[in-house]
Write a structure and sequence with these properties.
mainly alpha; 527 residues; 1% strand; two-stranded antiparallel ribbon; single chain; 2 domains
Length: 527
C-alpha cells in the first residue's frame, strides 16, 4: 500500500478473524523494540554503575535531568503527542493526509518556538532551580549543586533535539506506522552507551578483542552521550516522514481550527504531565536530604519497575491509542469498550504475578548485575520493590488515560493527576524519613494506583466492562501465589550460586504462574 492511499473505514477497522489484530501486531512490534531498548538501557546503567557506583557525582547527573526531561514531556513529548495523535487521526480520517500534515506543521512550528524560549529561561535560571529550598537538589553540597547546574544546561541541547523528534513520532504513529518510532529509543540508547563507554571513562576499556578509546570527560561524558543519542533519535524518524510524504509548511496560523483542538487538549495535558514530573522533582528533593546514593537508588529502582511496565502497558497503550481514536471518530462505542476492557483485564492479570516474582528474586540479581556494595544493593532493591508494588496501578493508568485522550477529553486525566500528585506529596512526607528512599518509592506506587482507580471508575459510567476485573484479579492473585512459591523453592534448593539461582527462579516462577492467567494472555491477541 502506498503511504498516501486512504482505504475505506471498514477495511481499516475490521481485523481478520484468525491471527493477530492490527493492535496486537503493533503491540508486539513496539514491545519487541521496547525490550531491546530496556536491555540496552539496563546495559548502560550497569556500565555507569560500575564506573561511578552510588556516588554524589552520579546523584548530580540524575538530578540535573529533571527539568530538561520535564520540558520535553510538557512541550513536545508526552503532552503534545497524546494531544496530537487523536486530532491528527481524526483529520486523516475526515480530510486526508495532506490536511493532516498541514496541521502537523502548524503544531510543530509553535512547539519548537516555545521549546526554544523555555530552554533560554531554564539556562538563565538554572542556579535557583537547583539550589532553592523547593528546587531540584537543595540538600546537595555547594560543589555538587554547581555540577548539577552545569549538567542541566548541557542537557537542554538534547531537549531541543527531542522536541522535534517527539513530534515526528506522533505524526508517524497517527499514520499507524510504529516501526521507526519504536526503533528511535534504541538509537538513543546507543548514543548514551557511547558516552558511558568512551566519553566518560578516564582509562580505555577492553571488550574482548576490542580496545575502546577513553576521553576522560567523567560525568560530563554521560551528558554528551545523551546529546548524541537525542540526535540519533531524531534522524531515525526522517525516513518515515519522507515515506509518508511530509511537507513542512512554514506557517503558524493561530486561527486554524485543528490547532485550536490540539491546544484545548494540550492545556490540560501539559498540567497532567507537569503533575507527573513534579512527582519526580519532589522525589529528588526529598532524596537529596537522605543518605548519599538515595537519588541514584530511586533512578535504578524506577528503571527496574519500568522494564515490565514498558514492555506490557506502554506498548499496548502506544499501539491502542490510534485505534481508540479511530473508533471514537466513527462512534463505534461497542468496539471502543471491548478494546479498553480487554486491555485492562489482561494488564491486571499479568502484572500481579510479575510483581511477586520480581520482588522475591531481585536482590541477588541487582547485586550481580550492578556490582554495587552491600549498602548500594540494599538501597536499590528496597526502592525497586517499593516501585513494583505500583506496577499494576501504573500499567492500568497507561490504558485508562488513553481511554479519555482518544475521546479528546484531557480534563479527567488532569483531575486524576492532581489527586495523584497531592497524594504522593502527603504520603512521601510521612514515609521518607522512617523508610528512606523506599518510602518515597512506596508513596509513588500508592499515589499512581489511586489515580488509575479513579480514572477507571469514571470510565465505568460510560463503559461498564472496563471495571469488570473480578476474574482477572482472582486469577492474577492465584498466579502470583504459584509463581512466588516456585521462586522461593528454586532459590532455596537450586545447587548454584545466588544470582544463577535467581535467574532460574525467574524462569521457573514465570512458567508456574502462566496457567491461571492464560486466558488473558490470549486476550492480548484480540486487542
Amino acid at each position: 500500500m502506498q503511504p498516501d492511499q486512504h482505504p475505506a473505514p471498514e477495511n481499516r477497522t475490521q481485523p481478520k478473524r484468525t491471527g493477530l489484530t492490527r493492535v496486537a501486531r503493533a503491540s508486539l512490534l513496539v514491545s519487541a523494540f521496547f525490550a531491546l531498548d530496556k536491555l540496552l538501557g539496563m546495559f548502560r546503567q550497569v556500565v555507569i554503575a560500575r564506573q561511578f557506583g552510588i556516588s554524589a557525582e552520579l546523584d548530580a547527573f540524575n538530578a540535573a535531568n529533571n527539568i530538561p526531561d520535564l520540558m520535553f514531556a510538557l512541550i513536545a513529548g508526552g503532552a503534545l503527542a497524546i494531544a496530537l495523535i487523536p486530532v491528527l487521526t481524526e483529520t486523516l480520517e475526515l480530510t486526508g493526509r495532506e490536511a493532516m500534515w498541514r496541521l502537523f506543521s502548524r503544531v510543530a512550528n509553535w512547539a519548537l518556538l516555545i521549546t526554544a524560549a523555555a530552554a533560554v529561561i531554564v539556562y538563565l535560571a538554572a542556579e535557583p532551580i537547583v539550589q532553592a529550598e523547593i528546587g531540584v537538589a537543595p540538600g546537595f553540597t555547594p560543589q555538587m549543586q554547581v555540577l548539577a547546574v552545569d549538567l542541566m544546561r548541557l542537557n537542554l541541547i538534547a531537549t531541543l533535539l527531542f522536541s522535534l523528534s517527539g513530534l515526528m513520532m506522533a505524526g508517524l504513529q497517527s499514520n499507524q506506522h510504529f516501526f521507526l518510532p519504536a526503533l528511535a529509543p534504541v538509537m538513543y540508547d546507543l548514543g548514551q552507551i557511547f558516552g558511558a563507554l568512551v566519553l566518560a571513562p578516564s582509562e580505555p576499556l577492553t571488550l574482548g578483542p576490542i580496545a575502546l578509546p577513553a576521553y576522560g570527560l567523567g560525568v560530563h561524558g554521560l551528558v554528551y552521550g545523551v546529546i548524541l543519542g537525542a540526535g540519533l533519535h531524531l534522524l531515525t524518524q526522517v525516513p518515515g516522514m519522507i515515506r509518508f510524504r511530509f511537507r513542512w509548511s512554514p506557517v503558524l496560523d493561530p486561527a486554524d481550527t485543528g490547532l485550536h483542538k490540539v491546544a484545548r487538549m494540550m492545556g490540560p495535558r501539559i498540567l497532567t504531565i507537569a503533575a507527573f514530573n513534579v512527582v519526580f522533582v519532589a522525589t529528588d528533593n526529598l532524596a537529596s536530604r537522605l543518605e548519599v546514593g538515595s537519588v541514584t537508588a530511586l533512578v535504578y529502582g524506577w528503571l527496574i519497575m519500568q522494564v515490565p511496565e514498558t514492555l506490557l502497558a506502554t506498548a499496548i497503550g502506544t499501539a491502542l491509542l490510534p485505534t481508540l481514536s479511530e473508533q471514537f471518530a466513527r462512534r463505534e462505542n461497542a468496539q471502543f469498550e471491548a478494546s479498553l476492557a480487554r486491555a485492562t483485564r489482561s494488564l491486571l492479570a499479568l502484572t500481579l504475578p510479575i510483581t511477586a516474582i520480581l520482588c522475591l528474586s531481585l536482590h541477588p540479581l541487582v547485586e550481580a548485575v550492578f556490582g554495587l556494595n552491600a549498602e548500594g544493593t540494599r538501597l536499590v532493591v528496597g526502592a525497586a520493590q517499593a516501585f513494583l508494588v505500583g506496577l499494576a496501578g501504573h500499567s492500568l493508568l497507561e490504558v485508562a488515560a488513553r481511554g479519555f485522550y482518544s475521546r479528546q477529553n484531557a480534563l479527567v486525566p488532569l483531575a486524576g493527576a492532581m489527586i495523584g500528585l497531592v497524594s504522593f506529596v502527603a504520603l512521601a512526607l510521612v514515609l521518607y524519613q522512617p523508610l528512606g528512599s523506599a518510602g518515597i518509592a512506596l508513596a509513588n506506587s500508592l499515589a499512581f494506583t489511586l489515580q488509575a482507580g479513579l480514572l477507571l471508575l469514571i470510565l465505568r459510567r460510560t463503559f461498564p466492562a472496563v471495571l469488570r476485573l473480578g476474574g482477572p484479579l482472582l486469577r492474577g492473585l492465584a498466579s502470583a501465589a504459584l509463581g512466588g512459591v516456585v521462586v522461593l523453592l528454586v532459590m532455596r534448593l537450586a545447587p548454584v550460586s545466588p544470582a544463577p539461582a535467581a535467574a532460574l527462579a525467574l524462569l521457573a516462577g514465570g512458567l508456574a504462574a502462566l496457567p491461571p492467567i492464560l486466558p488473558y494472555v490470549r486476550d492480548l491477541a484480540r486487542l
